[in-house]
Amino acid sequence: MRFEDHCSWIVAQTELLVADLPGTSLALPVPSCPGWTLGMLLRHIGGGHRWAADVVRTRATGFLPDGIIRDVAGDDTGAVPAGWLLDGAHELATALTEAGPDEPVWTPFELGGMPFWARRFAHETLMHRADATLAAGTPFEVATDVAVDALDEWMELDAHPIHFDLDPAKKSILGPGRTVALLDDELPRGWFVDLTGAVNTWRRGTGPAAVTVRAPLRQLLLMVYRRRTPDGLPVTGDEALLRHWLGHVAFG
């Protein structure tokens, strides 16, 4: 996907988020974010957009304080702050578009400058929209190209070797014969994860795997981002390996 697509998706996913929540109470608990209310989740989303916009606008050369993302307490008695959420999404998308994809900026672990921020917050917004729909009990729908790119991004981020330094316990996912395949019958290619080497790698495609999940793309997306468990999905092979692998990824 192009940088411009990711910028536009930040706004589009926020528009869908607002549309998913008509008349919803901000006091609702969010099952996929234990301890959070819907209001806290929405303050996290809007704060994240504004924090990232500051990173982009200032061409930050290092980490900026992110209390606006983490300090999510507030008043949950009002209506969904649709205007505030949309303003934050437009602020970030505009900052990114004005900067362009080639302008240097700090990212965690030197992950790719402005394109990283555009793509990360497109899918950060997407997956928090999923959190909101789980809280509100409304259907979660996602366009195929968006879901495919979100899964690709997840695979790319998860394959970064820095994770083994940050969480040495993650090395327990590696071992002989450990491979995972994620398939949707509507797609020509799935995702194949190889855990047999010194680090995990992945590719688009398929092959004989120790465990295979064959499910609709939306369900695969929710599973790998840990918004649902594999329970009820068609899993063949070593389900314990699948659950162990999923237990050592967490972001977005």
Automatic annotation (TrEMBL):
TM region positions:
none
Could you tell me what this protein is called?
Mycothiol-dependent maleylpyruvate isomerase metal-binding domain-containing protein
Where is the Mycothiol-dependent maleylpyruvate isomerase metal-binding domain positioned along the sequence?
Answer: 12-132
- Molecular functions (GO terms): metal ion binding
Source organism of the structure? Dactylosporangium siamense
Q: Which GO terms describe its cellular component?
A: plasma membrane
Query: What superkingdom heads the lineage?
Result: Bacteria
Q: One Pfam family of this protein, by short name? A: MDMPI_N
Name the InterPro entries on file: DinB/YfiT-like, Maleyloyr_isom, MDMPI_metal-binding
